[in-house]
Amino acid sequence: MKTFKLLSIFALIATLFTSCYTEVVVEEEYVGSGSPVVPAITLEQMLRSYELWYVDINQTIGYGETPFLQIAFTVSFKNGALYANNNLVGIGSQGNGFGIPIGYYDTSNMILNVDHDIDGYDSFDVYQIDNNTIELYNPYNDTSYFLNGYQRSTFDYDYVFYDNIRYFMQEYEAWEKTYTSEYGALNEFDNENYLQFLSGGNDNTFRSSQDQMGTNPNSLYWDFTGIYGVADVSRQYVL
């Protein structure tokens, strides 16, 4: 899975006479079949070759978490500044599509060092998987994140929104009912005026409240707790 440059060193030792020798060392870079190639680009150049790196959270390997990657939909590396789209609300419009600045980074060989504004320092071993996929391995928690590279002009922000609709629902502290359809059978759920979709380890749990419209979200009393699911039906989402 991990791609490494193969470096072959050929040493030719010619023994002259009995007690002295001459050593000639020739170094060349080889990749794949062994044909000499132009030296690979640096990690900094690779990170900046794409404007957006989509964090494919479902491909994560390991049981640890790196907080800033866990909540990011995309990250971007711009001249030492680290940017991220952490929210689906307004994705594609914040920071000209880059999102917001979240910290700083530097590179050394194939090591990425990150100083996050909130979470502090992290370091990653970086492996190139294919032309637009990299692996960020965090040795501190033995967890790998996989990022896919895109340019802003071809990045499908709408797809990211719909593919992560569950997280969009969780971004708000509460959802206030504004309308009740006259269709369907009346039931007790019609009396609920607020919904809250929980995050973290409760990704399929919601709470509801019958408090009056206009109640401050901090003052809501949650009457009921239930289970919900999200399904894609011709690009229309149902609970």
Key traits:
single chain; 239 residues; mainly beta; Lipocalin; eight-stranded antiparallel β-barrel; four-stranded antiparallel sheet; 4 helices; disordered N terminus
Write the layout of secondary structure elements.
Elements: E1 6-16, E2 20-31, E3 35-36, H1 43-48, E4 52-55, H2 67-70, E5 74-78, E6 81-85, E7 100-108, E8 111-116, E9 120-130, E10 133-138, E11 143-150, H3 157-163, H4 165-170, E12 175-176, E13 194-197, E14 205-209, E15 224-227, E16 231-233, E17 236-238
Antiparallel strand pairs: 1-2, 2-3, 4-5, 4-11, 5-6, 6-7, 7-8, 8-9, 9-10, 10-11, 12-13, 13-14, 14-15, 16-17
Instruction: Estimate the mean pLDDT confidence.
Output: 81
Total strands:
17
Q: Total number of helical segments?
A: 4
Main sheet record: 8 strands, antiparallel, barrel
How do the strands line up in the largest sheet? Answer: 4-5-6-7-8-9-10-11
Poorly predicted runs: 1-39
Total tally of structural domains: 3
Spatial shape: elongated
Give the N-terminus to C-terminus distance in angstroms: 38 Å
Q: Encode the helix/strand succession as letters.
A: EEEHEHEEEEEEEHHEEEEEE
CATH architectural group of the largest domain: Beta Barrel
Structural classification: mainly beta
Helix content bin = under 10%
Beta-strand percentage? Answer: 35-45%
Question: What name does the CATH topology of the largest domain carry?
Answer: Lipocalin
CATH class of the largest domain, named Mainly Beta
Radius of gyration: 26 Å
Keywords: Signal
Organism: Lacinutrix neustonica
Protein name: Nicotinic acid mononucleotide adenyltransferase
Signal peptide: 1-22
